[in-house]
User: What shape does this take?
Amino acid sequence: MLGELDGRRLGVRELSRFPNRILELNGHLFWDVWHLLDEVKNGLRACAAEEPTSVGIDTWGVDFGLLASDGTLLGLPYSYRDGRTDGAMSRFRRLVPKRRVYELTGIQFLPINTLYQLYSMKRDRSPLLDVATDLLFMPDLFNHLLTGRKATEFTIATTSQLYNPSKQEWSAELLKALGLPKRVMQDIVQPGTEVGPLSSPVAAEVGLKRARVVATASHDTASAVAAVPVEAEAWMFISAGTWSLVGVETEKPITTAAALRHNFTNEGGVGGRFRFLKNVTGFWLLQQLVKSWGEAAEYGSLVKEAAEAKPLNAVFDPDADCFRAPEDMGKALVEYCRSARQRPPRTRAEQVRAVLESLALKYRLVRDELEKVTGREIERVHIVGGGAHNSLLCQMTADALGLPVHAGPAEATAVGNILVQAMAAGLVSSLEEMRTIVRESFRVRQYEPGPTKEWDAAYERFRGLAEEKR
Assistant: This one.
Protein backbone atom coordinates (compact mmCIF):
# COMPACT_ATOMS: atom_id res chain seq x y z
CA MET A 1 0.00 0.00 0.00
CA LEU A 2 1.31 3.43 -0.95
CA GLY A 3 0.13 6.37 1.15
CA GLU A 4 0.20 10.06 0.30
CA LEU A 5 -0.59 12.70 2.90
CA ASP A 6 -1.91 15.94 1.43
CA GLY A 7 -2.48 18.32 4.29
CA ARG A 8 -5.26 16.78 6.37
CA ARG A 9 -6.24 14.03 3.94
CA LEU A 10 -4.61 10.67 3.41
CA GLY A 11 -4.90 8.70 0.18
CA VAL A 12 -3.85 5.06 -0.08
CA ARG A 13 -3.37 2.86 -3.13
CA GLU A 14 -2.84 -0.88 -3.34
CA LEU A 15 0.24 -1.69 -5.40
CA SER A 16 0.55 -5.43 -4.95
CA ARG A 17 -1.09 -8.29 -3.09
CA PHE A 18 0.15 -11.81 -2.46
CA PRO A 19 -0.77 -14.90 -0.44
CA ASN A 20 0.99 -15.76 2.80
CA ARG A 21 1.28 -19.52 2.84
CA ILE A 22 2.23 -21.92 5.61
CA LEU A 23 4.69 -24.64 4.62
CA GLU A 24 4.40 -28.11 6.15
CA LEU A 25 7.82 -29.71 6.40
CA ASN A 26 8.69 -32.84 8.37
CA GLY A 27 5.45 -32.60 10.32
CA HIS A 28 5.88 -28.95 11.36
CA LEU A 29 4.46 -25.66 10.08
CA PHE A 30 6.69 -22.80 8.93
CA TRP A 31 6.46 -19.40 7.25
CA ASP A 32 8.09 -19.09 3.83
CA VAL A 33 10.02 -15.97 4.79
CA TRP A 34 12.04 -15.85 1.55
CA HIS A 35 8.87 -15.87 -0.55
CA LEU A 36 7.50 -13.06 1.62
CA LEU A 37 10.73 -11.06 1.26
CA ASP A 38 10.57 -11.42 -2.53
CA GLU A 39 7.01 -10.13 -2.52
CA VAL A 40 7.97 -7.20 -0.28
CA LYS A 41 10.66 -6.32 -2.80
CA ASN A 42 8.12 -6.56 -5.63
CA GLY A 43 5.98 -4.05 -3.75
CA LEU A 44 8.95 -1.73 -3.34
CA ARG A 45 9.73 -1.95 -7.05
CA ALA A 46 6.10 -1.11 -7.84
CA CYS A 47 6.38 2.22 -6.01
CA ALA A 48 9.96 3.13 -6.95
CA ALA A 49 8.84 5.69 -9.52
CA GLU A 50 6.88 7.52 -6.79
CA GLU A 51 10.05 7.88 -4.68
CA PRO A 52 8.48 7.22 -1.26
CA THR A 53 10.20 8.76 1.73
CA SER A 54 9.81 5.74 4.01
CA VAL A 55 8.80 2.09 4.31
CA GLY A 56 7.11 0.44 7.30
CA ILE A 57 6.33 -3.25 7.81
CA ASP A 58 3.73 -4.72 10.14
CA THR A 59 2.89 -8.39 10.67
CA TRP A 60 1.06 -10.72 13.03
CA GLY A 61 2.49 -11.16 16.51
CA VAL A 62 4.40 -13.78 18.55
CA ASP A 63 6.38 -15.51 15.75
CA PHE A 64 10.12 -14.95 15.32
CA GLY A 65 13.30 -15.89 13.51
CA LEU A 66 16.65 -16.79 15.05
CA LEU A 67 19.98 -15.52 13.72
CA ALA A 68 23.47 -17.00 13.99
CA SER A 69 26.44 -14.82 14.92
CA ASP A 70 27.16 -14.11 11.25
CA GLY A 71 23.59 -12.92 10.65
CA THR A 72 22.44 -16.12 8.96
CA LEU A 73 18.76 -16.94 9.50
CA LEU A 74 18.61 -20.31 11.26
CA GLY A 75 15.94 -22.11 9.29
CA LEU A 76 12.43 -20.95 8.52
CA PRO A 77 10.41 -19.31 11.33
CA TYR A 78 7.81 -21.61 12.86
CA SER A 79 4.15 -20.74 12.47
CA TYR A 80 2.23 -20.17 15.69
CA ARG A 81 -0.22 -22.83 14.46
CA ASP A 82 2.46 -25.52 14.73
CA GLY A 83 1.60 -28.19 17.28
CA ARG A 84 4.93 -28.17 19.10
CA THR A 85 3.51 -25.88 21.78
CA ASP A 86 0.85 -28.40 22.83
CA GLY A 87 1.10 -28.78 26.60
CA ALA A 88 3.91 -26.21 26.90
CA MET A 89 1.78 -23.62 28.67
CA SER A 90 0.73 -25.91 31.53
CA ARG A 91 4.23 -27.33 31.95
CA PHE A 92 5.84 -23.91 32.10
CA ARG A 93 3.63 -23.07 35.09
CA ARG A 94 5.77 -25.49 37.10
CA LEU A 95 8.63 -23.05 36.59
CA VAL A 96 6.72 -19.77 37.01
CA PRO A 97 3.15 -19.73 38.37
CA LYS A 98 0.38 -18.36 36.15
CA ARG A 99 -0.35 -15.40 38.42
CA ARG A 100 3.32 -14.39 38.45
CA VAL A 101 3.58 -14.53 34.65
CA TYR A 102 0.54 -12.25 34.41
CA GLU A 103 1.96 -9.83 36.99
CA LEU A 104 5.16 -9.61 34.97
CA THR A 105 3.62 -9.25 31.49
CA GLY A 106 -0.14 -8.64 31.61
CA ILE A 107 -0.51 -10.87 28.54
CA GLN A 108 -3.36 -13.25 27.74
CA PHE A 109 -2.53 -16.94 28.15
CA LEU A 110 -2.44 -18.55 24.72
CA PRO A 111 -0.37 -21.57 23.69
CA ILE A 112 0.85 -19.63 20.65
CA ASN A 113 2.70 -16.98 22.70
CA THR A 114 6.45 -16.60 22.11
CA LEU A 115 7.10 -17.61 25.73
CA TYR A 116 5.66 -21.10 25.11
CA GLN A 117 7.19 -21.42 21.66
CA LEU A 118 10.62 -20.90 23.21
CA TYR A 119 9.83 -23.18 26.14
CA SER A 120 8.81 -25.95 23.74
CA MET A 121 12.11 -25.55 21.90
CA LYS A 122 14.01 -25.79 25.22
CA ARG A 123 11.95 -28.81 26.24
CA ASP A 124 12.69 -30.52 22.92
CA ARG A 125 16.40 -29.58 23.10
CA SER A 126 16.31 -27.66 19.83
CA PRO A 127 19.87 -27.19 18.55
CA LEU A 128 18.85 -23.81 17.13
CA LEU A 129 18.85 -22.24 20.58
CA ASP A 130 22.42 -23.40 21.16
CA VAL A 131 23.76 -21.36 18.26
CA ALA A 132 21.30 -18.45 18.09
CA THR A 133 22.71 -15.05 19.01
CA ASP A 134 19.67 -12.93 18.14
CA LEU A 135 15.89 -13.28 18.21
CA LEU A 136 13.90 -11.07 15.84
CA PHE A 137 10.11 -10.96 15.67
CA MET A 138 8.66 -11.13 12.18
CA PRO A 139 8.48 -7.39 11.36
CA ASP A 140 11.89 -6.85 12.99
CA LEU A 141 13.25 -9.70 10.87
CA PHE A 142 12.04 -8.10 7.64
CA ASN A 143 13.44 -4.73 8.75
CA HIS A 144 16.77 -6.47 9.33
CA LEU A 145 16.68 -8.21 5.93
CA LEU A 146 16.05 -4.83 4.29
CA THR A 147 18.55 -2.73 6.27
CA GLY A 148 21.00 -5.05 8.06
CA ARG A 149 20.05 -3.45 11.40
CA LYS A 150 18.50 -5.14 14.44
CA ALA A 151 15.91 -3.74 16.87
CA THR A 152 12.55 -4.78 18.30
CA GLU A 153 9.60 -2.43 18.09
CA PHE A 154 7.50 -1.89 21.23
CA THR A 155 4.07 -3.08 20.06
CA ILE A 156 5.40 -6.36 18.66
CA ALA A 157 7.53 -6.94 21.77
CA THR A 158 4.47 -6.84 24.00
CA THR A 159 2.76 -9.73 22.17
CA SER A 160 5.51 -12.14 23.22
CA GLN A 161 4.65 -12.55 26.93
CA LEU A 162 8.32 -11.77 27.59
CA TYR A 163 8.05 -7.99 28.02
CA ASN A 164 7.54 -6.35 31.40
CA PRO A 165 5.51 -3.14 30.83
CA SER A 166 6.03 -1.91 34.41
CA LYS A 167 9.81 -1.94 34.03
CA GLN A 168 9.63 -1.23 30.28
CA GLU A 169 12.13 -3.98 29.50
CA TRP A 170 12.41 -7.67 28.79
CA SER A 171 11.53 -9.80 31.80
CA ALA A 172 14.80 -11.10 33.23
CA GLU A 173 12.82 -13.51 35.42
CA LEU A 174 11.08 -15.21 32.51
CA LEU A 175 14.19 -15.33 30.35
CA LYS A 176 16.03 -16.96 33.25
CA ALA A 177 13.24 -19.52 33.61
CA LEU A 178 13.67 -20.31 29.92
CA GLY A 179 17.43 -20.54 30.28
CA LEU A 180 17.92 -17.86 27.63
CA PRO A 181 20.50 -15.07 27.92
CA LYS A 182 19.05 -11.57 27.73
CA ARG A 183 21.53 -10.72 25.00
CA VAL A 184 19.50 -12.65 22.40
CA MET A 185 16.76 -10.03 22.73
CA GLN A 186 17.05 -6.67 20.97
CA ASP A 187 16.82 -3.10 22.22
CA ILE A 188 13.19 -1.95 22.18
CA VAL A 189 12.25 1.11 20.13
CA GLN A 190 8.96 3.04 19.99
CA PRO A 191 6.62 3.22 16.97
CA GLY A 192 7.91 5.85 14.58
CA THR A 193 11.62 5.14 15.16
CA GLU A 194 13.79 5.14 12.07
CA VAL A 195 15.64 1.84 11.65
CA GLY A 196 17.83 3.06 8.83
CA PRO A 197 18.20 3.26 5.04
CA LEU A 198 17.79 0.25 2.79
CA SER A 199 21.04 -1.65 2.50
CA SER A 200 22.96 -0.89 -0.69
CA PRO A 201 22.18 -4.27 -2.32
CA VAL A 202 18.45 -3.99 -1.57
CA ALA A 203 18.27 -0.35 -2.68
CA ALA A 204 19.92 -1.24 -5.99
CA GLU A 205 17.68 -4.28 -6.45
CA VAL A 206 14.38 -2.42 -5.95
CA GLY A 207 15.36 0.98 -7.34
CA LEU A 208 14.79 3.01 -4.17
CA LYS A 209 17.59 5.41 -3.29
CA ARG A 210 16.14 7.66 -0.58
CA ALA A 211 13.57 5.60 1.30
CA ARG A 212 14.20 5.01 4.99
CA VAL A 213 12.82 2.02 6.88
CA VAL A 214 10.72 3.02 9.89
CA ALA A 215 9.75 0.78 12.79
CA THR A 216 6.06 1.57 12.50
CA ALA A 217 3.43 0.17 14.87
CA SER A 218 4.77 -3.21 13.81
CA HIS A 219 2.03 -5.40 15.24
CA ASP A 220 -0.79 -5.28 12.72
CA THR A 221 -3.49 -4.74 15.35
CA ALA A 222 -1.54 -1.85 16.88
CA SER A 223 -1.53 -0.14 13.49
CA ALA A 224 -5.22 -0.90 13.00
CA VAL A 225 -6.25 0.50 16.40
CA ALA A 226 -4.17 3.63 15.76
CA ALA A 227 -6.42 4.19 12.72
CA VAL A 228 -9.73 3.89 14.60
CA PRO A 229 -11.54 7.16 13.71
CA VAL A 230 -12.84 7.69 17.23
CA GLU A 231 -13.94 10.93 18.86
CA ALA A 232 -15.87 9.77 21.94
CA GLU A 233 -14.37 8.22 25.07
CA ALA A 234 -16.75 5.31 25.74
CA TRP A 235 -15.81 3.06 22.82
CA MET A 236 -14.47 -0.39 22.10
CA PHE A 237 -12.74 -1.66 19.00
CA ILE A 238 -13.00 -4.86 17.00
CA SER A 239 -10.17 -5.43 14.55
CA ALA A 240 -11.80 -8.15 12.48
CA GLY A 241 -9.67 -10.40 10.30
CA THR A 242 -8.30 -13.93 10.66
CA TRP A 243 -8.46 -13.11 14.36
CA SER A 244 -10.89 -10.70 15.96
CA LEU A 245 -9.16 -8.47 18.49
CA VAL A 246 -11.80 -7.05 20.82
CA GLY A 247 -10.93 -4.43 23.42
CA VAL A 248 -10.47 -0.88 24.65
CA GLU A 249 -7.55 1.53 24.79
CA THR A 250 -5.96 2.33 28.16
CA GLU A 251 -3.20 4.56 29.48
CA LYS A 252 -1.67 1.79 31.61
CA PRO A 253 -1.80 -2.03 31.71
CA ILE A 254 -4.56 -3.63 33.79
CA THR A 255 -3.23 -6.70 35.60
CA THR A 256 -5.88 -7.19 38.28
CA ALA A 257 -7.18 -10.57 39.41
CA ALA A 258 -10.34 -9.92 37.38
CA ALA A 259 -8.30 -9.21 34.24
CA LEU A 260 -6.42 -12.49 34.76
CA ARG A 261 -9.63 -14.42 35.46
CA HIS A 262 -11.13 -13.25 32.16
CA ASN A 263 -7.81 -13.78 30.35
CA PHE A 264 -7.40 -10.27 28.94
CA THR A 265 -4.17 -9.08 27.40
CA ASN A 266 -2.31 -5.76 27.56
CA GLU A 267 -0.57 -5.12 24.24
CA GLY A 268 1.36 -2.00 23.35
CA GLY A 269 -0.08 0.77 21.22
CA VAL A 270 0.96 4.06 19.66
CA GLY A 271 1.80 6.98 21.93
CA GLY A 272 2.55 4.74 24.91
CA ARG A 273 -1.06 3.50 25.05
CA PHE A 274 -2.08 -0.08 25.72
CA ARG A 275 -4.67 -2.21 23.99
CA PHE A 276 -6.61 -4.06 26.70
CA LEU A 277 -8.19 -6.79 24.63
CA LYS A 278 -9.03 -10.39 24.05
CA ASN A 279 -8.00 -12.47 21.04
CA VAL A 280 -11.04 -14.16 19.50
CA THR A 281 -10.84 -16.65 16.65
CA GLY A 282 -12.21 -14.76 13.63
CA PHE A 283 -12.48 -15.33 9.89
CA TRP A 284 -10.13 -18.30 10.25
CA LEU A 285 -13.37 -20.23 10.79
CA LEU A 286 -14.78 -19.13 7.42
CA GLN A 287 -11.48 -19.71 5.63
CA GLN A 288 -11.32 -23.27 6.93
CA LEU A 289 -15.01 -23.89 6.22
CA VAL A 290 -14.48 -22.99 2.57
CA LYS A 291 -11.44 -25.28 2.53
CA SER A 292 -13.50 -28.13 3.99
CA TRP A 293 -16.08 -27.82 1.20
CA GLY A 294 -13.41 -28.63 -1.36
CA GLU A 295 -14.70 -26.07 -3.83
CA ALA A 296 -14.08 -22.44 -4.65
CA ALA A 297 -16.40 -19.88 -3.07
CA GLU A 298 -16.73 -16.11 -3.28
CA TYR A 299 -17.10 -14.56 0.16
CA GLY A 300 -19.49 -11.84 -0.95
CA SER A 301 -21.91 -14.42 -2.36
CA LEU A 302 -21.62 -16.55 0.77
CA VAL A 303 -22.57 -13.61 2.98
CA LYS A 304 -25.61 -12.85 0.78
CA GLU A 305 -26.72 -16.48 1.04
CA ALA A 306 -26.19 -16.43 4.80
CA ALA A 307 -28.42 -13.35 5.14
CA GLU A 308 -31.34 -15.46 3.85
CA ALA A 309 -30.74 -18.44 6.15
CA LYS A 310 -32.72 -19.08 9.33
CA PRO A 311 -31.44 -16.82 12.13
CA LEU A 312 -29.91 -17.98 15.42
CA ASN A 313 -30.41 -21.66 14.76
CA ALA A 314 -27.05 -22.91 16.06
CA VAL A 315 -24.47 -21.01 18.10
CA PHE A 316 -20.99 -21.99 19.24
CA ASP A 317 -17.93 -20.59 20.96
CA PRO A 318 -15.42 -19.63 18.22
CA ASP A 319 -12.59 -20.30 20.68
CA ALA A 320 -13.54 -23.88 21.47
CA ASP A 321 -10.49 -26.14 21.23
CA CYS A 322 -12.05 -28.21 18.45
CA PHE A 323 -11.86 -25.23 16.07
CA ARG A 324 -8.18 -24.43 16.60
CA ALA A 325 -6.80 -26.54 13.73
CA PRO A 326 -9.28 -29.27 12.69
CA GLU A 327 -8.69 -31.39 9.62
CA ASP A 328 -12.22 -30.57 8.47
CA MET A 329 -13.89 -27.42 9.86
CA GLY A 330 -17.32 -28.41 8.54
CA LYS A 331 -17.23 -31.73 10.40
CA ALA A 332 -15.91 -30.03 13.55
CA LEU A 333 -18.84 -27.60 13.47
CA VAL A 334 -21.38 -30.41 13.04
CA GLU A 335 -19.87 -32.45 15.88
CA TYR A 336 -19.79 -29.42 18.20
CA CYS A 337 -23.46 -28.67 17.58
CA ARG A 338 -24.49 -32.27 18.14
CA SER A 339 -22.60 -32.40 21.44
CA ALA A 340 -24.36 -29.16 22.45
CA ARG A 341 -27.77 -30.68 21.53
CA GLN A 342 -28.36 -28.23 18.68
CA ARG A 343 -29.42 -28.95 15.10
CA PRO A 344 -26.19 -28.74 13.10
CA PRO A 345 -26.13 -26.27 10.20
CA ARG A 346 -26.20 -28.30 6.99
CA THR A 347 -26.05 -25.91 4.05
CA ARG A 348 -23.22 -23.53 3.23
CA ALA A 349 -25.48 -20.58 4.00
CA GLU A 350 -26.43 -22.02 7.41
CA GLN A 351 -22.82 -22.68 8.31
CA VAL A 352 -21.67 -19.19 7.35
CA ARG A 353 -24.56 -17.63 9.25
CA ALA A 354 -23.73 -19.70 12.34
CA VAL A 355 -20.13 -18.45 12.19
CA LEU A 356 -21.11 -14.78 11.88
CA GLU A 357 -23.80 -14.96 14.58
CA SER A 358 -21.44 -16.76 16.96
CA LEU A 359 -18.77 -14.11 16.39
CA ALA A 360 -21.29 -11.36 17.20
CA LEU A 361 -22.33 -13.18 20.38
CA LYS A 362 -18.68 -13.63 21.37
CA TYR A 363 -18.17 -9.88 20.91
CA ARG A 364 -21.06 -9.31 23.31
CA LEU A 365 -19.52 -11.64 25.89
CA VAL A 366 -16.19 -9.81 25.67
CA ARG A 367 -17.98 -6.45 25.90
CA ASP A 368 -19.68 -7.55 29.12
CA GLU A 369 -16.35 -8.72 30.55
CA LEU A 370 -14.63 -5.47 29.53
CA GLU A 371 -17.23 -3.41 31.35
CA LYS A 372 -16.85 -5.53 34.50
CA VAL A 373 -13.06 -5.42 34.55
CA THR A 374 -12.56 -1.76 33.58
CA GLY A 375 -15.64 -0.24 35.23
CA ARG A 376 -16.40 1.58 31.96
CA GLU A 377 -19.73 1.60 30.19
CA ILE A 378 -19.23 1.12 26.47
CA GLU A 379 -21.49 3.19 24.24
CA ARG A 380 -20.28 2.46 20.72
CA VAL A 381 -18.32 -0.09 18.74
CA HIS A 382 -15.72 0.57 16.03
CA ILE A 383 -15.05 -2.27 13.60
CA VAL A 384 -11.92 -1.93 11.47
CA GLY A 385 -10.13 -4.32 9.16
CA GLY A 386 -11.65 -6.72 6.67
CA GLY A 387 -14.73 -7.22 8.85
CA ALA A 388 -15.77 -3.62 8.17
CA HIS A 389 -16.67 -4.77 4.62
CA ASN A 390 -18.99 -7.47 5.99
CA SER A 391 -22.28 -5.60 6.40
CA LEU A 392 -24.07 -8.69 7.75
CA LEU A 393 -21.52 -9.15 10.56
CA CYS A 394 -21.61 -5.41 11.34
CA GLN A 395 -25.41 -5.42 11.65
CA MET A 396 -25.36 -8.61 13.70
CA THR A 397 -22.83 -7.03 16.05
CA ALA A 398 -25.03 -3.95 16.49
CA ASP A 399 -28.06 -6.17 17.18
CA ALA A 400 -26.25 -8.57 19.52
CA LEU A 401 -24.66 -5.79 21.60
CA GLY A 402 -27.54 -3.31 21.35
CA LEU A 403 -25.02 -0.61 20.39
CA PRO A 404 -24.31 1.48 17.30
CA VAL A 405 -21.48 0.10 15.19
CA HIS A 406 -19.15 2.33 13.17
CA ALA A 407 -17.43 0.32 10.43
CA GLY A 408 -14.24 1.39 8.67
CA PRO A 409 -11.69 1.89 7.43
CA ALA A 410 -11.29 -1.64 6.10
CA GLU A 411 -7.57 -1.12 5.42
CA ALA A 412 -7.01 0.24 8.93
CA THR A 413 -3.75 -1.63 9.43
CA ALA A 414 -2.17 -0.07 6.34
CA VAL A 415 -3.60 3.36 7.24
CA GLY A 416 -2.22 3.23 10.79
CA ASN A 417 1.13 1.97 9.54
CA ILE A 418 1.42 4.84 7.06
CA LEU A 419 0.38 7.50 9.56
CA VAL A 420 3.00 6.33 12.06
CA GLN A 421 5.53 6.76 9.26
CA ALA A 422 4.11 10.27 8.76
CA MET A 423 4.66 10.90 12.47
CA ALA A 424 8.28 9.77 12.10
CA ALA A 425 8.65 12.30 9.28
CA GLY A 426 7.27 15.10 11.47
CA LEU A 427 4.09 15.46 9.38
CA VAL A 428 1.77 14.29 12.20
CA SER A 429 2.26 15.25 15.83
CA SER A 430 0.07 12.87 17.84
CA LEU A 431 -2.24 9.87 17.91
CA GLU A 432 -5.22 12.23 18.16
CA GLU A 433 -4.14 14.03 14.99
CA MET A 434 -3.75 10.69 13.23
CA ARG A 435 -7.33 9.80 14.08
CA THR A 436 -8.59 13.19 12.93
CA ILE A 437 -6.94 12.57 9.56
CA VAL A 438 -8.60 9.15 9.34
CA ARG A 439 -12.03 10.66 10.04
CA GLU A 440 -11.51 13.27 7.33
CA SER A 441 -10.09 10.81 4.78
CA PHE A 442 -12.22 7.66 4.91
CA ARG A 443 -15.91 6.83 4.82
CA VAL A 444 -17.27 5.20 7.96
CA ARG A 445 -20.59 3.37 7.78
CA GLN A 446 -22.91 3.31 10.80
CA TYR A 447 -25.21 0.45 11.83
CA GLU A 448 -27.98 0.96 14.37
CA PRO A 449 -29.16 -1.91 16.61
CA GLY A 450 -32.49 -3.55 15.90
CA PRO A 451 -34.77 -5.64 18.16
CA THR A 452 -32.74 -7.62 20.67
CA LYS A 453 -35.22 -10.13 22.17
CA GLU A 454 -34.09 -13.05 19.98
CA TRP A 455 -30.45 -12.09 20.44
CA ASP A 456 -30.89 -12.00 24.23
CA ALA A 457 -32.22 -15.56 24.19
CA ALA A 458 -29.43 -16.74 21.91
CA TYR A 459 -26.89 -15.02 24.16
CA GLU A 460 -28.03 -17.03 27.17
CA ARG A 461 -27.51 -20.23 25.17
CA PHE A 462 -24.12 -19.01 23.97
CA ARG A 463 -22.94 -17.94 27.41
CA GLY A 464 -23.77 -21.38 28.79
CA LEU A 465 -21.64 -23.02 26.09
CA ALA A 466 -18.75 -20.60 26.71
CA GLU A 467 -18.87 -21.27 30.46
CA GLU A 468 -18.79 -25.03 29.83
CA LYS A 469 -15.52 -24.49 27.92
CA ARG A 470 -13.97 -22.89 30.99
Remarks:
- The domain at 219-470 is CATH 3.30.420.40 (Nucleotidyltransferase; domain 5).
- The chain has a mean pLDDT of 96.
- Residues 348-374 form the longest helix (27 residues).
